[in-house]
Amino acid sequence: MATAHDQLTFQDPVTRFAEISPPKQHQEEPGLDAELKPKADRGEETYRGTGRLKGRKALITGGDSGIGAAVAIAFAREGADVAIGYLPAEEEDAQHVKSIIEAEGRTCVLIAEDLSTKDACEKLVAEAVEGLGGLDALVNNAGKQISVENFEDLSDEQVVETFDVNIIAMFRICQAALPHLSPGSTIVNSTSIQAYSPSDHLIDYASTKAAINNFTKGLSQSLAPKGIRVNAVAPGPVWTPLQVSDGQPKDKLPEFGKNTPLGRAGQPTEMAPCYVFLTSPESSYVVGETLNANGGQVSP
Ligand code: NAD
Ligand code: MG
């Protein structure tokens, strides 16, 4: 899937990545990049760093695959050491990302924790701080998305789990991280186009994404005076394992992303520069913002 060009080469966004028609496929949750067909582009071959995160210490949840993996690779190429949180079932993907980061001469700390509990969220932060020797960048990116056709069939268990992982964990991780974050530090949260345009089969997930936008704005007000900036990125349809582990109805997969003005799904590496920008000191006056990266879908 990788193109020959890096992300700074002048190129047509319509054709930068091929339009894909993913075959119907299923993976058990949480899904692996290693088994995704076609492969997603996390920028392994193409992302070129320009020293924007030199010496930074970043924790990225869900950094084993998809958007989080692309962010982890980009952060390392920009000069950061990285800790990534993931689920034990994702060890293969996590090891792969670690090997790419270490090839850049950067440190990669792997932390397998299920973020559904407060204890695990606190442990994640403690291990990241210990492994990196501090923390000045947090990317809350882990997320759970399970499509359910009829609202009547949405189980109470799924609603609670989705809220626990997608939004409650953000409260817990931010609270645990705060004592370690000095002025200049940043938090970037992964929200979604679903925050504004909820699909009828993703009502629980979409609600958490709207909550993340509001959480981001509220927390940004609280932390700005301390010199800590909080922002969010709202991806549109991006080709990742989330989509094949019940994130979308199976029959919709071949059409995934085709209804955007660019006419194609996004690749994870196209999200990475948004996270880099919001984490880099160059965005010093950007606070409480949601940066939409969705192929042109009109959003607030
Ligand atoms: P992904 O499956 O590659 O990443 C999601 C990650 O969340 C997993 O790798 C897993 O490590 C983590 N996770 C899930 N449940 C967890 C748990 N209980 N404990 C700890 N970690 C857990 O998929 P992705 O699409 O790259 O998703 C990353 C973020 O981007 C998510 O927040 C998702 O909602 C958001 N997003 C994705 C899209 C898209 O189209 N792919 C669009 C908008 C927003
Ligand atoms: Mg994963």
UniProtKB/TrEMBL annotation:
Any one Gene Ontology molecular-function term assigned to this protein's record: oxidoreductase activity, acting on CH-OH group of donors
Keywords: Oxidoreductase
Region ranges (Disordered): 1-48, 243-264
Record field: compositional bias (Polar residues): 1-12
UniProt keyword annotation of DNA-binding present: no
Biased composition annotated in UniProt, kind: Basic and acidic residues: 25-47
Family, per entry: Belongs to the short-chain dehydrogenases/reductases (SDR) family.
Protein name per the record: NAD(P)-dependent oxidoreductase
Organism: Bowdeniella nasicola
